[in-house]
Every structure is written in structure tokens, then in C-alpha cells.
Design brief:
Blueprint: E1 2-6, E2 28-36, E3 42-49, E4 60-61, E5 72-73, E6 84-88, E7 94-99, E8 104-105, E9 108-109, E10 112-113, E11 117-124, E12 132-138
Parallel strand pairs: 4-12
Antiparallel strand pairs: 1-2, 2-3, 5-8, 6-7, 6-11, 9-10, 11-12
């Protein structure tokens, strides 16, 4: 038997239950503290909830192997686990697609680096949200 305490209560639905729901307005770290009632000690764990104010979509990347911007990645898609991402070449051929947070394009199609240029994309976040369309530039 344990006592449960969430030390950051801002946005938490319940402060003294193991399971809680949070809706913070800003990125927040929550600390879960469990205190044994039978003398087994105290245990703590931390959860960081990142709040994305808007979906930032980078407009270019450089897959040149230097470790900087080598993939086209939309970090905030993590907030939309059912989101779909599709990328097309200039001929309208689908060259990349993903569902969920794994949407990270390395500039390749069928394991072959694509030429430098503009690649149209479509992002459907689901949940009735507007579909986002744009162009990402692959720079070699």
C-alpha cells in the first residue's frame, strides 16, 4: 500500500491517484512520488509533458551527413499520433508516407537520394483539423 503524490498539480485532474490526466498550458515536468505505508521507502519518477503552441513545419533540410538537419522531421507531429504525412516529387509520384510520429524523411525514395528541389507535402492531423499543405526543399 502506498501514498501517491503528484508534486506539480497545475493541470492535473487528480493529485493523489496513480493515474491522472493533465492539460498544461505550457510545457511542464510532473513528479510522481510514491511513499510506502509499510516501510519500503520512497520512490520518485518524472514525466515531462511538452506543449506545442503550433505545428512548426521546417521548409528545408540538408541530408548531407553532417549531423545537422539531415532529415526532414516535424517534431510536433508527436502530439498527433494518428497524423498522416505524404510527400510527392515534381511529377506527383508519392515518394514518402507515414502515419504517426515516425514521419521523418531522409530525402530518399526506394533507398536512392532524390535530387535537390521542392517536394510538395500534405499533413493530415486528423480529428477534423485542417489539412496542411506546403513544400519542403531538399538541399544537397
Amino acid at each position: 500500500d502506498v501514498d501517491v503524490l503528484w508534486t506539480t498539480n497545475m493541470g492535473a485532474s487528480t493529485a493523489n491517484n496513480l493515474e491522472t490526466t493533465v492539460s498544461p498550458l505550457n510545457s511542464t515536468q510532473y513528479t510522481l512520488t510514491l511513499i510506502s505505508k509499510i516501510g519500503c521507502g520512497i520512490s520518485k519518477d518524472y514525466v515531462f509533458v511538452k506543449v506545442f503552441k503550433q505545428l512548426y513545419v521546417p521548409n528545408a533540410f540538408t541530408p548531407n551527413g553532417d549531423g545537422l538537419n539531415d532529415t526532414w522531421r516535424i517534431e510536433a507531429l508527436a502530439a498527433y499520433p494518428a497524423a498522416s504525412l505524404t510527400i510527392y516529387n515534381r511529377f506527383g509520384q508519392l515518394i514518402f508516407s507515414s502515419i504517426g510520429i515516425s514521419g521523418e524523411w531522409n530525402g530518399k525514395f526506394k533507398n536512392k537520394m532524390q535530387p535537390a528541389g521542392a517536394y510538395p507535402y500534405i499533413i493530415d492531423r486528423g480529428n477534423g483539423l485542417p489539412v496542411l499543405k506546403g513544400v519542403v526543399y531538399l538541399i544537397l
